[in-house]
Design brief:
With 459 residues, the protein is of the alpha+beta class. It is built from 14 helices and twelve strands. The protein has a domain of 189 residues: Up-down Bundle (Butyryl-CoA Dehydrogenase, subunit A, domain 3).
């Protein structure tokens, strides 16, 4: 496995990175992107130290429900780029198994082995620019609105287009490029799946970040320690060698990659939503106690609802893992029904749980003085005095307000609001897959039976 230092050095490879209108010459030393590099580097060091000489635990393919379950705490301890690397490996492995083409299966296996052997980070490039979303890829006024093949050569293809919302794109080594949706005959150029090095000629990554821009980051106890840039990835006529192509024009298989990624994205999203739901309950109870309102009936009712939500999300995660299925190659994959239903429920109700938290906490979530104000000789003692709540500890209550704001009501909180809904394809996609895998006919038979109409079940 790589060390953190080796990872930092690996980023000095000539990649084209941009941030707020300027080209970034050294991502490791950049004031905003550099701390995100440090987060990834610390994860490298963590695994290198705790598992010396072994393959990274996030690189292996799960073969059982216990394998699936054991990865969740490791993923939660890892950085986001390590997380999406695991999801990328599982997406390619799952898609290759479902497509069943030996040529592509061999290429996927070789690429995955390459990533595992060198301990590289892979990010997911799926969502296209899409242009006029009422039109199919082949009907766009600009044919580049969806990433496509613009030239086929004997030794590979040239692709052009853009992929949006790519978490950690500038921090990884490889870009997994896959179709964003189903394609139909005539759209063969858009049915392209491949792996592209981040520093390949023609790749340009424009970044945004929710990282705090404050010199004193103590008021951002969560986002200051764990932030990741979002990449707008542009493929400006990028050559892809044949051995890195996993789908090339077979429109009937284009949706397999999107569905495979959706499954692993939603499992990851569900596992994080389960932890986040517990965190929201914890903050609600802590701030209710600090405010002296923990015994109030309406506060207890809200926290009880948050507890039920957290329990149901956790239950669907456990059901998704315990009910896992297996591919032809022995790979374990989570149950589609519980993964999608759980992800939908967790994401659709997240905002309501945050609303309960804000209602319990009060307006100081937004207006509490800075931690540095406590250290001011003139106003510090007064801030501490008037920030005190039921427990008399003004500093502790102040820090709780800042943590709640950072998690739910600032730049990072806004990122979470949108990401929880959109990650894995949005709520509509999860409704579709849930309905597809639910035993609707079985439900009809049960209804007919209880109605005394069992003879109608055959119809």
């Amino acid at each position: 496995m790589m060390t953190g230092a080796e990872y930092r050095a690996s980023l000095n490879d000539g990649r084209s990175i941009f941030f707020e209108g300027e080209r970034v010459e050294d991502v490791v030393c950049h004031p905003i992107l550099g701390p995100a590099v440090d987060v990834v580097a610390r994860c490298y060091d963590h695994f290198h130290t705790t598992r010396p000489g072994a393959e990274s635990p996030l690189m292996g393919v799960p073969r059982s429900a216990e394998d699936l379950r054991s990865r969740i705490p490791m993923l939660h301890d890892a950085d986001l780029v390590a997380h999406v690397t695991y999801q990328s490996i599982m997406t390619l492995t799952t898609a290759a198994s479902r497509i069943g083409d030996p040529k592509y299966a061999e290429r996927v296996a070789a690429f995955v082995a390459h990533v595992q052997r060198r301990d590289l980070r892979v990010t997911e490039c799926i969502t296209d620019a899409k242009g006029d979303r009422s039109r199919a890829p082949g009907q766009q006024s600009d044919p580049d609105a969806y990433t496509r093949v613009v030239e086929r050569r004997a030794d590979g293809v040239v692709i052009r287009g853009a992929k949006l919302h790519i978490s950690g794109a500038c921090l990884g080594h490889e870009l997994m490029v896959i179709p964003t949706k189903a394609m139909k005959p005539g759209e063969e150029a858009y049915a392209i799946a491949c792996a592209v090095p981040v520093n390949a000629p023609g790749v340009k990554i424009v970044n945004t970040s929710y990282a705090p821009r404050h010199a004193d980051t103590r008021d951002f106890p969560i986002s200051a320690k764990n932030n990741c840039p979002e990449g707008f990835v542009i493929f400006d006529d990028v050559f892809v060698p044949a051995e890195r192509i996993f789908l090339d024009g077979e429109v009937k298989h284009a949706t397999v990659f999107a569905h495979s990624l959706g499954l692993w994205e939603r499992l990851g999203g569900l596992s994080f939503l389960a932890d986040e739901a517990d965190q929201l309950v914890g903050f609600a109870q802590l701030i209710a106690e600090a405010n002296g309102l923990a015994r109030e009936a309406h506060v207890r009712e809200k926290i009880s609802e948050m507890i039920i939500h957290a329990t149901l999300v956790r239950a669907t995660l456990e059901a998704a893992i315990s009910g896992c299925g297996f591919g032809a190659d022995g790979t374990a994959y989570p149950d589609e029904l519980y993964t999608n239903a759980g992800k939908y429920h967790g994401a659709a109700n997240y905002n309501l749980m945050v609303r309960h938290l804000h209602d319990i906490a009060g307006g100081s979530v937004l207006t509490a003085p800075a931690i540095a104000d406590l250290e001011n000789n003139e106003v510090g003692p007064l801030v501490r005095k008037y920030m005190a709540g039921a427990d008399g500890d003004g500093e502790r209550r102040l820090k709780l307000f800042h943590a709640i704001r950072d998690l739910t009501a600032d730049a990072y909180g806004g990122w979470k609001f949108v990401t929880n809904i959109q990650a894995g394809g949005g709520l509509y996609a999860q409704r579709i897959v849930t309905r597809k895998h639910y035993d609707l006919e079985g439900a009809k038979r049960k209804a007919l039976k209880i109605a005394g109409m069992a003879e109608g079940a055959a119809h």
